[in-house]
Amino acid sequence: MAQTALVTSKGRFLFTSESVNEGHPDKLCDQVSDAILDACLAEDPNSKVACETCTKTGMVMIFGEISTNANVDYEKIIRETCRDIGYDDESKGLDYKTMKVVVAIEDQSPDIAQAVHLNKKIEEIGAGDQGHMFGYACDETPELMPLSHSLATSLGKRLTDVRKTGILPYIRPDGKTQVTVEYDNTIGEPVPVRVHTIVISTQHAPEVDNEQLRRDIIEHVIKPVVPERYLDANTIYHLNPSGRFVIGGPHGDAGLTGRKIIIDTYGGWGAHGGGAFSGKDSTKVDRSAAYAARWAAKSLVANGFCKRCLVQVSYSIGVAAPLSLFVDSYGTCASGYTDDQLLRIIVENFDFRPGVIQRDLRLKEPLFKELAVYGHFGRCPEKYAWEKPMDLSHCKKPEAGELLNPEFHWQASGREYPSLTALAPEVGACCVSTGAPLCSFFTGIGDS
């Protein structure tokens, strides 16, 4: 295809996000690391965990530093995690029953412990390391996530669903998805118009030909996930474009914790400080502060102060108070508001000290393994506190204009729902005002 075909009409642009399935080697490692973290937190909420995982043919290894009073059978957790993903035979790329398991875990450094948390009150707990973290939200979808990312994530989740439910039994655990969305930017903010390209590569049994796989993927994966209004005669499909994907999982590629940080967050939108999430307890601000920044950004958008928001926070190791806070609304503030005023709203309503984040977002609970695949954001707000926007109605200035309308109205099966909490996870649900799909909800992400 000529590159000139990638040039859209005036005022429009293409943006691409990708995702990977739970059987992808890197995601297998993320899930193992977070399964270890959950097991520690389940018995000892004060566990300090920094657990990395790597995998290659016939082998999974964990290594890092863990200080806990929990009695954890590391090997059992590793094997069970690989089993649950679907790696039960070497022909699929790994067999949980026969694979070699290596454990190389040591205690947390006492130097770090005394600097960060030892003998400290909640408000005094310091950051586990220096760094800068970002949170992002936009009004493209009801879960306030970018459409390109939500669609790529939902397609990946759907690939897993059709495999595990037997709809497409020849599908195997490894796989990747990618969605390019065409956006209209003529009014100064991106509005999703159509899906330009869908790429899906899925591991499969050797007896399946590519034509059957293509038909099945369109019928059972793409159509149930991508709203028809975004697909047209010019939408491009690359379905298993390599032609054959039998060798997969750790047999095909090595895997390592923390190599899918853009998939874990916003699909390339916003920004990323570089720190991974999985295998880290919440004293590690790479994780906890990123969740808090998402909470703040989502709250501003949900309350109508802006349509798109990026929040940055930074830390020094051992210091509780953040070093800096930054807010960018990309010029989408409600009338009468500025980014400086949005920053003040955040400062006056959100506490970014690590110990307080732990408490407010319930990060000492064992809730992380489920987050290790299909994204940490856009999840069920009743289960993950950073996804439940804070009520900021008290921050409205009497002299300012009306806030942007944050109240979405939903339609599913011909009915309308007044709010997200009233919506059952029905296939094909979308927002009446924007037509954006309820991606993470109708595919069941975060609701199990």
UniProtKB/TrEMBL annotation:
UniProt keyword terms in alphabetical order: ATP-binding, Magnesium, Metal-binding, Nucleotide-binding, One-carbon metabolism, Potassium, Transferase
Domain S-adenosylmethionine synthetase N-terminal: 13-110
PROSITE patterns: ADOMET_SYNTHASE_1, ADOMET_SYNTHASE_2
InterPro entries: ADOMET_SYNTHASE_CS, S-AdoMet_synt_C, S-AdoMet_synt_central, S-AdoMet_synt_N, S-AdoMet_synthetase, S-AdoMet_synthetase_sfam
Pathway: Amino-acid biosynthesis; S-adenosyl-L-methionine biosynthesis; S-adenosyl-L-methionine from L-methionine: step 1/1
Ranges for domain S-adenosylmethionine synthetase C-terminal: 247-388
Substrates-to-products reaction catalysed: L-methionine + ATP + H2O = S-adenosyl-L-methionine + phosphate + diphosphate
Cofactor: K(+); Mg(2+)
Superkingdom in the source lineage: Eukaryota
Entry's Gene Ontology BP terms: one-carbon metabolic process; S-adenosylmethionine biosynthetic process
Cofactor note: Binds 1 potassium ion per subunit. The potassium ion interacts primarily with the substrate.
GO function terms (MF aspect): ATP binding; metal ion binding; methionine adenosyltransferase activity
rRNA-binding among keywords: no
Major enzyme class: transferase
EC annotation from Swiss-Prot or TrEMBL: 2.5.1.6
Domain S-adenosylmethionine synthetase central positions: 124-245
A Pfam family recorded for this sequence: S-AdoMet_synt_M
Function summary: Catalyzes the formation of S-adenosylmethionine from methionine and ATP.
Similarity comment: Belongs to the AdoMet synthase family.
Listed NCBIfam families: metK
Full protein name: S-adenosylmethionine synthase
Organism, scientific name: Cyclospora cayetanensis
